[in-house]
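Try this one yourself first.
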């Protein structure tokens, strides 16, 4: 029975990503559909999921918060540092270098981890995904903008970027949940049972958005550079994080979610950032496409890796 349940979850994982990809390839309105779906997740479904999961988080889990933050920063910054070392040994076009640095630094912190955590770990892991998402938004505003300004020729409104990060709905939801948590507020069982459907909708809509994102940015040019970045982002970084987790003493649930986050391919948002700063957006699109495509069959091994 468990094997059948796992097979069905795996099937839905691929079906919704492939559905999004197929629609993106068939219609010119895929960008609009992706924006609407993303807005629904970011502004409504995910904040509700965060409130639900954080309010159910036991107080003992807060003792691991500093370690989660440190490992979240390491997950992002290690790839950046390793690629800088690679760049010191050879010449790479400035705009391309900036795009690759974005891709190796910023992985898919929400839209793939959320459904995978809900499928294989449970909604208790959403609290850690939320922390990773907040860390990533802070790094996008700081390190991401620095990369864009250093290697690109565009000049986006940095004040607007900062404002969007501060008003990021999941961030606001996490703040509200923390305030209610301190007050000792708990959700009634009747409300919790209804909100369980929100998790299901969030799971499959997020996978659909991943498919749309890959479909709209699909490119296979500059494959060699993309594979180099992916080998760092999806092999070396998870291996290093996994080694740290083995000696960290963190709880099983926390360690599993952090390892899952470390395994994620580059985020689709890097393509948007590359465009905004006049970096090599095509290289970013190739890296996101190849990284996501290579990750998809790897999902079959996740139950063995994270339990």
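Now uncover the answer:
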């Amino acid at each position: 029975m468990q094997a059948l349940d796992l097979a069905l979850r795996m099937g839905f994982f691929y079906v919704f990503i492939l559905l999004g990809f197929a629609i993106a390839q068939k219609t010119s309105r895929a960008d609009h559909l992706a924006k609407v779906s993303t807005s629904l997740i970011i502004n409504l479904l995910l904040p509700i999921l965060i409130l639900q999961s954080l309010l159910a988080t036991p107080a003992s889990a807060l003792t691991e918060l500093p370690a989660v933050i440190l490992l979240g920063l390491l997950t992002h910054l290690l790839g950046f540092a390793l690629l800088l070392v690679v760049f010191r040994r050879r010449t790479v076009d400035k705009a391309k270098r900036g795009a690759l640095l974005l891709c190796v630094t910023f992985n898919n912190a929400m839209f793939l981890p959320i459904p995978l955590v809900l499928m294989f770990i449970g909604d208790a892991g959403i609290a850690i995904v939320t922390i990773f998402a907040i860390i990533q938004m802070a790094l996008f505003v700081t390190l991401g903008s620095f990369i864009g300004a250093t290697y690109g020729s565009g000049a986006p409104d940095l004040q607007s970027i900062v404002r969007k990060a501060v008003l990021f709905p999941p961030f606001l939801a996490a703040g509200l949940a923390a305030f209610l948590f301190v007050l000792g507020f708990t959700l009634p069982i009747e409300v919790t049972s209804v909100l369980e459907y929100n998790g299901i909708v969030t799971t499959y809509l997020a996978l659909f958005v991943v498919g749309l994102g890959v479909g709209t940015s699909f490119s296979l040019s500059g494959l060699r550079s993309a594979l180099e970045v992916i080998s760092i982002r999806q092999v070396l970084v998870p291996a290093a994080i996994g080694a740290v987790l083995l000696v960290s003493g963190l709880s099983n649930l926390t360690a599993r979610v952090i390892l899952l986050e470390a395994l994620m391919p580059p985020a689709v948002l890097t393509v948007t950032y590359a465009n905004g700063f006049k970096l090599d957006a095509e290289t970013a699109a190739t890296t996101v496409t190849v990284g996501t495509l290579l990750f998809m069959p790897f999902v079959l091994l996740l139950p063995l890796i994270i339990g």
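Discussion: The mean pLDDT is 84. The CA atoms of residues 96 and 280 lie 5 Å apart.
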